[in-house]
Write a structure and sequence with these properties.
Blueprint: E1 2-4, E2 14-19, E3 32-47, H1 55-63, E4 68-78, H2 86-101, E5 108-115, H3 122-134, H4 141-147, E6 156-164, E7 167-176, E8 189-194, H5 200-210, E9 229-234, H6 248-270, E10 278-286, H7 289-301, H8 303-310, H9 317-325, E11 336-341, E12 344-350, E13 353-354, H10 359-366, E14 370-376, E15 382-389, H11 393-400
């Protein structure tokens, strides 16, 4: 499994572009992205469990109900959520793709991100389609990654190369996500492409098998968005024998997918709104997988603990507190806690009680940009990892006037 460049255009047969069409007031920020496959692709997606859902999710779910898609169109700056004509607008975006590319509207994944409850006008999107389509290219993956950003400070993309059935295959992904992240399916918007030949059924199985351990273990602020979506298109141009069941080839595909999703999870958590640190909590020694997952995620979602990490304060009591109210079935008398970074490791708790440690060394460890929280829960065989970030003054500043 080799990391490569290229993002969503690393795989054969994909092109992309991103432009500023006028949805966002800031002309220096791109706000419309398009990804297309040369041929029809197997398609799968997962969506937010929030009862309030953006209209694009409803349209996408209908469009890929047959497991096939050829394009992804996404705008930023407006979520197209809670609008009376939201479905009409989302369908209109798909129709514009058909008009300008010849790809059938029902083969389009459509997504929107930004402010909730603001009417979305098709006029700027229609006006930008000619430029968007004419600029489709392999290097355009980077432009697409920029065009889906909202409060993100960096574009998020990754790609890998691997082998399936003797054929060289590739998979790439882009994501946006910085705030309003506490998914119960996936996190914000993620678009993944691959040239692997795989049936829609197995692609769906792969995605739904991966998400609970990756995107659902990522949180910035505890808010589950209305527009969360992860979609995957696999067009088969690598030429491998199609994956239609479980086995070695499917396992390799799953490993590639997990490499992509974990990388994007870390980028999203590390770029949380106002964040200065990436937090990675690994809970080991649990009696059940649920106990490990619930414990790890509770730690990285604790506002008090996140604030302590911002201040580089080794307040390990907040780790135990978060596990204690999480609902996880654990024996608190067996919990151990250590903090680790590039500066070293410090153990602060054993068997549910504090132990002597150097506050100076702990401070040095916690001043780093990436912090690991290592939690031991006893003697069980299960483990889980969750990703989050610290809670800073800037988070409140960003969200205090996000809409206005």
């Amino acid at each position: 499994m080799k990391l490569i460049t290229g993002g969503v255009c690393a795989a054969k047969g994909f092109k992309a572009n991103g432009i500023h069409c006028g949805i966002r007031k800031n002309h220096s920020k791109k706000d419309l992205a398009l990804i297309v496959s040369d041929v029809p692709a197997s398609a799968a997606a997962v969506y937010t469990t929030n009862l309030v859902k953006g209209a694009p999710l409803t349209v996408t779910k209908q469009n890929i109900s047959n497991g096939i898609a050829r394009a992804v169109i996404c705008n930023s700056g407006n979520a197209n959520t809670c609008n009376a004509n939201g479905i009409e607008i989302a369908e209109g975006m798909c129709a514009l793709v058909e008009q300008h590319t010849g790809i059938a509207a029902h083969d389009v994944v459509v997504a929107s991100t930004g402010v909730i409850g603001q009417p979305l006008d098709l006029t700027p999107i229609a006006g930008g389609m000619a430029e968007l389509v004419s600029g489709l290219s392999v290097p355009g993956a980077a432009d697409a990654a920029q065009a889906i950003m909202t409060t993100d400070t960096i574009p998020k993309e990754v790609a890998v190369e691997f082998e399936v059935g003797g054929k060289t295959c590739r998979m790439g992904g882009i994501a946006k996500g910085s705030g309003m992240i506490h998914p119960n399916m996936a996190t914000m918007l993620v678009f993944i492409t691959s040239d692997v030949a795989i049936s829609p059924e197995m692609l769906n199985l792969a995605l739904k098998g991966d998400v609970p351990n990756t995107f659902n273990m990522t949180s910035v602020d505890g808010d589950t968005s209305t527009n969360d979506m992860v979609s995957v298109l696999a067009n088969g141009l690598a030429g491998n024998e199609p994956i239609t069941g479980e086995g070695a080839d499917f396992d390799t595909f799953m490993k590639a997918l997990n490499t992509i999703t974990v990388h994007l999870c870390r980028l999203i958590a590390g770029d949380g709104e106002g964040a200065t640190k990436l937090l990675e909590c690994t809970a080991t020694g649990a009696d059940t997988l649920d106990a490990a997952k619930i414990s790890a995620k509770s730690v990285i979602t604790s506002s008090l603990f996140k604030a302590a990490m911002f201040g580089a304060d080794a307040n390990w009591g907040r780790v135990l507190c978060a596990i204690g109210y999480s609902g996880a079935d654990v024996d608190v008398s067996k919990i151990g806690v250590s903090f680790r970074s590039n500066k070293g490791t410090v153990t602060v708790c054993e068997n549910g009680a504090g132990i002597p440690f150097s506050e100076e060394i702990a401070k040095e460890i916690l001043l780093e940009k990436e912090i690991e929280i290592l939690v031991t829960l006893g003697s069980g065989p299960y483990a889980a990892t969750a990703w989050g970030c610290d809670l800073t003054y800037d988070y409140v500043k960003i969200n205090g006037d996000y809409r206005t």
